[in-house]
Structure prediction request, 435 residues.
Amino acid sequence: MSTFDEILPNLTKIFYLFQEDVTKMKPILVNRDLNGRVRLIVDEKWEDDESQQIALDNIAQKIQEELGSHAYPAQQAVLFEPDIDDFLKRESCFQLEGASDVFVIDRLAVESNWSHISSLRLSVPRTVFFSIKGGVGRSTALAATAWALAEQGKKVLVLDLDLESPGLSSALLPEDRRPSYGITDWLVEDLVDNGDAVFEHMVATSALSHNGEILVVPAHGANPGEYIAKLGRVWMPKIDGDGKRHSWSDRLCRLLGALEARWKPDVTLIDSRAGIDEVASACITELSASTILLFAVDGDQTWSGYRMLFKHWRKTGVVRDIRERLQIVGAMIPEVGTEDYVEGLLERAWDIFSEELYDEVPAGKVSGEEGVWSYDQSDESAPHYPWVVKWHRSFAVLKSLHGRLKGIDHEMVRVLFGPLIAGVELSIETDGGSQ
Ligand SMILES: Nc1ncnc2c1ncn2[C@@H]1O[C@H](COP(=O)(O)OP(=O)(O)O)[C@@H](O)[C@H]1O
Ligand SMILES: [Mg+2]
Prediction:
């Protein structure tokens, strides 16, 4: 019995057998529907072409044989489109591995597919904090980074997009400074064109830094209100007056753009959700972030998660659009056995970056040379080389992170979060320079 994961490899084999027909009828689209069932879409002009009809029948038969339950019955397996090139332009798809004229349209039940990589927006550099696992100190590290940047006089906008388990705003704001509304409120109001009612009241200034400014946009307001009922609606797409559909990530991008235009920050830091989840997908791929920090604790769950993600980017052909924005952050580095731990982290990170993301270095060339995107394992400027964040007991058992950060000093921040902060600073300068 053929299962889901065999669909694409089997199709590659089948199209190889029918190469001549594929070349003649190109492009051929493979529609993999919501249930994981496959049919073909070809240009209408082949419908009346007897010899191509026979070829299509044979291909459909073969697909049915090989894919079993994952194929439509052969007689229903081919759809015709009046203008296939135009259709192809409108659909999001990726090239089938090993078949340059065949494209896969993959219908998912969720909006995000992790493979729409939006181009870089350069007006305000955006940095996303992501991790495969929760509880790795990501929000704390973001709060510390925001503090350090503000201490240098920067205006920092921070967004808590971990809507299911918000934590960032409580790190940066005491109870009595929370704004009335948060991101969840805006997303729900926007569905009924009422976003303006909350827009001016969803940002609060943290009092932690006196030099620059930390503007915090929380997941919810001081009073979360009917949070569960709102959360159940934030992912809704919106259909506007002209019938145009705006996915929730489009709506989020619009909000982010409006917040940046209103508050004019030097940099925006975004706390994403953990795991391979829809919100995280939008944060990583659709918010045009120039730096994407991948928090990692050394363990199988972390590395297999990142490997799945990298493989997906490779398969869907977007890896080149995203890989240069990635950076591994070593989270909660233990106090004892530090060197060995970091060494292990570096090795594991290098394994997956070199296998999934870096170009192979041709003989006679070296890593980093023009046209070759690759790094040596020991290259400290490489994206796989972890920026370390140290574990410290004073953060481990805390009732109030805000209380802890209130008493923090430069030396402590430098010791625990120094490489992360230096890295983010550098990325802001680089992105800022290209404005
Ligand atoms: N560097 C650190 N050392 C020790 N404990 C930490 C550190 N950073 C965060 N913590 C603690 O770990 C817990 C999870 O931190 P948090 O920043 O909320 O993680 P995440 O956002 O990854 O879920 C909190 O109790 C926090 O105080
Ligand atoms: Mg968090």
